[in-house]
């Protein structure tokens, strides 16, 4: 089994890359499961709810529920490993980039030590202006981190954390180039 973590800014194309992984894997006869975080389970729904609020307290509470959601997914990994050849987590440990800069790297180091690590770490990168346009095109209520200054700050922090073994994929390319890149990552 191969476990992929696909992470990046809101609007970066994480779900699109996860689907490309699934299609590539399944075209080779492998079964693939994708788990999005926050998910539709209770901790994920609560995380999404609090992401619609404002202020530091709301961010902390949303993060707490996000962590619970990811931990719940990890408890189900044994079952999924028996059912699927590949598992894709959309969002995982790169959530540390949403923490204050002074604790971000320490928090990420704790995550690396405590939680199991995926086989492939893929960071989908895109310019914050492009991400913001995609977010606005969805027509949904904006989340607390969804503004160009916040996206820019988080992107810079993600690039620092990406030095911990992440493969950075530039999602400003054309679709065919992205598919070729994903094909290489799956191989």
General description of the model:
The protein is α/β, with parallel strands linked by helices and about 190 residues long. It has one domain: 3-Layer(aba) Sandwich (Rossmann fold), CATH 3.40.50.300. Helices cover about 55% and strands about 15% of the residues. The protein has eight helices and five strands. It has a five-stranded parallel sheet with strand order 2-3-1-4-5. The radius of gyration is 16 Å and the shape is globular.
Give me some keywords for this one.
single chain; 187 residues; alpha/beta; Rossmann fold; five-stranded parallel β-sheet; 55% helix; globular
Task: Describe, in short, the structure shown.
It is built from eight helices and five strands, in the order E-H-E-H-H-H-E-H-E-H-H-E-H. It has 187 residues and is an alpha/beta fold.
Overall SS class: alpha/beta
Order of helices and strands: EHEHHHEHEHHEH
Helices, by number, come to 8
Distance between the termini: 13 Å
Main sheet: which strands, in order across?
2-3-1-4-5
Helix content: 40-55%
- The first-level CATH class is given as Alpha Beta
- The CATH superfamily bears the name P-loop containing nucleotide triphosphate hydrolases
**What best-fitting shape do the alpha-carbon axes yield?**
globular
**Total strand count, please?**
5
Number of domains: 1
Radius of gyration: 16 Å
Mean pLDDT across residues? 93
Percent of residues in beta strands?
Answer: 5-15%
Uncertain regions: pLDDT < 50 for 5+ in a row? Answer: none
CATH architecture: 3-Layer(aba) Sandwich
* CATH topology annotation: Rossmann fold
- How would a crystallographer describe the biggest sheet? 5 strands, parallel
